[in-house]
């Protein structure tokens, strides 16, 4: 081997060693997290944390608005409604926290972005529908006992002004939440069906290229053709 070839191999080894240094590979964990879909689990963790913080944000907003200065009945109405909000947000926390585990299973599929988006869409719809249903029914019922039609003002303060329907919020809230859950699940299932179709089509195309799979398909086709011919003669 000439000195020129030896020098070239040494340079290649040095370059390969340099490419494996921490300067070039420090982002490897982040890149692997993206490719395997683990990064998307942060969405679930963030939403779970938001559910823990949300009741206290609402509490601060209502106190800052001067709502408590309106009288004792307004204070009692909000305290009971706030307890319902805490319960609903705790359910929401469990929903997001438990669903984050499904990302690991989804990562085994090649086309993961569509499936993960469908999971996030479904979970978000179920979370939103659950909050609206529980707060609308439970909070609306307790607040209506003290406030009557003034319950609309309370719901505006807690960010649910779209439910300003008076005491009917007890019915409208759960119905609205139910349809949100159904629609979000329907849309999510359509996306998952599309992803499953693509994955299965690629798997079939890959198997067809294998000789043993071709023989099995030909044997199955011949058996099926023979069965049809026998049935025609009857």
Topology, element by element:
Blueprint: H1 3-19, H2 22-25, H3 28-35, H4 41-64, H5 72-99, H6 102-106, H7 112-147, H8 151-157, H9 169-208, H10 211-233
Helix pairs in contact: 4-5, 5-7, 7-9
Report on the architecture of this protein.
This protein is mainly α. It has one domain. The protein contains ten helices and no strands. It has helices spanning 3-19, 22-25, 28-35, 41-64, 72-99, 102-106, 112-147, 151-157, 169-208, 211-233. The longest helix is centred in the last third of the chain and has 40 residues, at 169-208. The protein is elongated, with a radius of gyration of 29 Å. The relative contact order is 0.09. The model has no long low-confidence stretch (mean pLDDT 77).
Helix-strand sequence: HHHHHHHHHH
General shape: elongated
- Are there runs of 5+ residues with pLDDT below 50, and where? none
Report the major sheet.
none
Report the sheet-strand fraction. under 5%
Helix content: over 70%
- What's the helix count? 10
Summed over residues and divided by their number, the pLDDT gives a mean of 77
- Tell me the structural class: mainly alpha
> What integer value in Å does the Rg equal?
29 Å
- The overall strand count is 0
Q: How many individual domains?
A: 1
The termini sit apart by: 78 Å
Which keywords apply here?
234 residues; mainly alpha; 82% helix; elongated
Short description:
By secondary structure, the protein is mainly alpha-helical.
């Amino acid at each position: 081997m000439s000195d020129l070839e030896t020098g070239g191999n040494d340079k290649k080894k040095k370059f390969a060693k340099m490419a494996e240094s921490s300067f070039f590979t420090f982002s490897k964990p982040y890149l692997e997290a993206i490719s395997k879909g683990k990064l998307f689990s942060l969405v679930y963790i963030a939403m779970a944390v938001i559910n823990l913080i949300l009741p206290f944000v609402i509490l601060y907003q209502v106190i800052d608005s001067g709502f408590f200065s309106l009288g004792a009945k307004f204070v009692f109405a909000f305290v009971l409604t706030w307890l319902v909000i805490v319960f609903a947000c705790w359910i929401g926390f469990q929903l997001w926290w438990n669903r984050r585990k499904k990302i690991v299973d989804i990562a085994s599929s090649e086309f993961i972005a569509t499936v993960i988006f469908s999971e996030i869409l479904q979970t978000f719809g179920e979370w939103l529908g659950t909050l609206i249903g529980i707060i609308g029914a439970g909070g609306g019922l307790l607040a209506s006992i003290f406030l009557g039609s003034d319950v609309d003002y309370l719901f505006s303060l807690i960010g649910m002004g779209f439910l300003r329907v008076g005491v009917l919020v007890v019915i409208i809230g759960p119905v609205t939440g139910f349809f949100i859950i159904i629609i979000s699940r329907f849309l999510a299932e359509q996306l998952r069906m599309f992803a499953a179709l693509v994955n299965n089509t690629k798997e079939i195309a890959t198997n067809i290229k294998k000789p043993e799979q071709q023989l099995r398909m030909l044997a199955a086709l011949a058996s099926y053709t023979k069965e049809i011919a026998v049935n025609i003669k009857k």
